[in-house]
Design goal:
This protein is of the alpha/beta class and about 230 residues long. It has one domain: Spore Coat Polysaccharide Biosynthesis Protein SpsA, Chain A (Alpha-Beta Complex). The protein is about 40% helix and about 20% strand. It contains eight helices and seven strands, in the order E-H-E-H-E-H-E-H-E-H-E-H-H-E-H. The protein has a seven-stranded mixed sheet with strand order 3-2-1-4-6-5-7, with helices on both faces.
Length: about 230
């Protein structure tokens, strides 16, 4: 049986984090000989950190408290703490059916990294809000135009890779926010690793932290990555 390090970036996730950890453990502990959850409390102003600490005796948790805001910042710190052969992340609100996530991870037998996609045959059916539709479309266009990343969905909160992929990358990431996914895929593509997509239908969620006001900062960092790095 393989081993899994699951990074869970958590920003003000007190409403969802305990339930998600329980669900993740109940599924993944049956399929991986070694398992660790790395919870990255990312600029939390609620009780996320305290809740996670209270669960350490029940689950295989590593907890990192990161004061700087940013999904990318959180994921880099979490990935750097990972010890197992498969490294990946899921969001703190458990956004997908975990049985499908297990099938997705099995794609690593024939790929170096597998990423979730909410698109099937270019359909927007499974985008759950107008802001998420706009966010997904914008990032897909930027990925294709600036970085020649011809994947249908760079932003789904489910990505898993074999450990050697992360170990091969330089860790001086520019993109500290939601655009981190694009930089990660760009660097992986430059290394010519095999990337596979797996279709996932997201659950409805009330916990999304995606706001359209973050787009200007994301675009700025992506332009720096593409033209100034």
């Amino acid at each position: 049986m393989r081993s899994l390090s699951l990074v869970i970036p958590a920003h003000n996730a007190e409403r969802s984090i305990e339930k998600s950890i329980l669900e993740y453990f109940n599924v993944f502990s049956k399929h991986f000989k070694k398992l660790e959850f790395i919870i990255v409390c990312n600029a939390c102003k609620d009780k996320t950190f305290e809740i996670c600490n209270s669960l350490k005796s029940r689950y295989p948790l590593k907890i990192i408290n990161v004061p700087e805001r940013g999904k990318g910042n959180a994921l880099v710190k979490g990935f750097n703490q990972a010890e197992n052969s498969i490294i990946g992340f899921l969001d703190a609100d458990n956004p997908f059916q975990l049985e499908e996530i297990l099938k997705m991870i099995n794609f690593l037998e024939d790929a170096d990294i597998v990423i979730g996609t909410k698109f099937k045959h270019r359909s927007m059916k499974y985008q759950t809000s107008t802001s998420r539709r706009f966010f997904s479309i914008s990032n897909a266009l930027v990925s294709k135009i600036l970085f020649r990343i011809y994947l249908s969905d760079t932003q789904a909160g489910a990505k898993f890779m074999n450990r050697y992929v992360w170990d091969s990358l330089e860790k001086n990431f520019i993109c500290t926010g939601f655009e981190f996914d694009i930089e990660l895929l760009y660097r992986i593509q430059q290394k010519k690793f095999r990337i596979k997509e797996y279709f996932l239908i997201p659950k409805e969620s009330d916990y999304s932290t995606v706001k359209l006001r973050i787009l200007p900062g994301m675009l700025k960092r992506l332009f720096i990555l593409r033209f100034l790095k």
